[in-house]
Amino acid sequence: MRELASTTTGLLVLVFAAHAEALVRHDPAGLAEVASRFEEAGFLLHAAEAAAESGDRVLFGQLIGACEGARTPALARTSLVPLTQREREVAVLAARGLTNRRIAESLVILVRTVDNHLSHAYAKLGIATRGELVPLFADDLAGRG
């Protein structure tokens, strides 16, 4: 691949070569970079696969939604467990910056219940902080979800 990439001016050959090299090196940062390059080129399924292989669940979460249910071996190994409707609702409100107390008041539930929903959502999404919710729910935050 490297030799072919050196003899061509095509963007995709270079990105595929970088993808192969990052896979061989087991390079998560390189795979995340490849995912971004595929995304920029409009190859979202390849981008999602590279993100899955990188282990970057936030990037994977952003890209997989655009793949309209497509399944590949790489994607199957990194499937996101879907959130329940309530977990999603709580996660979107948290991503908007509401405190757990405000979320509880808004949904007329206990603060402890909000804590539980967020904990389950974080575990399913493979994240650890509220800030990591923002890119995952960008469409909801922009009013498109």
UniProtKB/TrEMBL annotation:
- Where does the HTH luxR-type domain lie? 76-141
> GO molecular function, one example?
DNA binding
The record's keywords, sorted A to Z, are: DNA-binding, Transcription, Transcription regulation
Query: This protein's superkingdom?
Result: Bacteria
Give the transmembrane region(s): none
- Entry's PROSITE patterns? HTH_LUXR_1, HTH_LUXR_2
- Tell me yes or no: is DNA repair among this UniProt entry's keywords: no
GO terms in the biological process aspect are: regulation of DNA-templated transcription
Instruction: Specify one Pfam family.
Output: GerE
Q: Which Gene3D superfamilies match?
A: Winged helix-like DNA-binding domain superfamily/Winged helix DNA-binding domain
Its protein name is Regulatory protein, luxR family
Naturally occurring in which organism (per UniProt): Lentzea jiangxiensis
